[in-house]
Write a structure and sequence with these properties.
Elements (H helix, E strand, L loop, with lengths): L1 H9 L2 E2 L14 H18 L5 E6 H13 L7 E8 L2 E10 L2 E13 L5 E9 L9 H17 L6 E9 L2 E8 L1
Parallel strand pairs: 1-5
Antiparallel strand pairs: 2-8, 3-4, 4-5, 5-6, 7-8
Helix pairs in contact: 2-3, 3-4
């Protein structure tokens, strides 16, 4: 009996939550570097005043968010998977409390604010049987904005987004360098 209890405690146990996507989006530093390089080239080309089109893939945004969460001492969740579909960013992950973990699903609407920067709004957050952490929406939106700023900001000084579209695995931002 003691062996069974110790074996159970040594393992973590899934206690539910929303369905996790079947296909896994790979996470890599190379995807983030590729995105930064793509942004740098597009912004430099747009310095003449032409419209700049920036395209982000699910692998790039998943990698960016995963690496950002890894740098935090106590992230809200781990193992993110970001799906870009039907005008929404849907982020899946795993939240852990003690020996238990649950699947997380966060639905995010991304728009453009008056300053031409991403306007990130959490539409829903499902942490399965765990309560959604207090202040989650503000902290998570700040994490996404910080990830965006870290990836785009250094190369996009003066870049103002005019439109953002999310569809079929891509997020496309159109704007101008002012």
């Amino acid at each position: 009996l003691i062996s069974l209890v110790l074996a159970t405690l040594a393992c973590s146990m899934n206690i539910g939550g929303p369905d996790y996507p079947e296909s896994e989006i790979p996470i890599s530093q190379q995807a983030v570097e590729s995105m930064k390089s793509q942004f740098k080239n597009a912004i430099e080309a747009g310095a003449t005043g032409n419209t700049v089109i920036l395209t982000v893939t699910e692998a790039q945004i998943t990698s960016l968010i995963a690496l950002k969460l890894e740098s935090q001492s106590d992230p809200f969740f781990t193992e993110p998977q970001v799906h870009l579909r039907n005008g929404k960013m849907t982020i899946y992950g795993k939240a852990t409390q003690g020996y238990f973990w649950a699947t997380v699903k966060i639905v995010v609407a991304v728009g453009v604010d008056e300053q031409g920067q991403p306007d990130i709004k959490i539409e829903s957050a499902d942490f399965g049987p765990f309560p959604v952490p207090s202040g989650f929406s503000n902290v998570f939106a700040a994490t996404i904005e910080e990830a965006y700023t870290g990836a785009v900001g250094p190369v996009a000084t003066g870049f103002r987004i005019e439109q953002i579209g999310i569809q079929d695995g891509f997020m496309v931002m159109a704007g101008k360098v002012k």
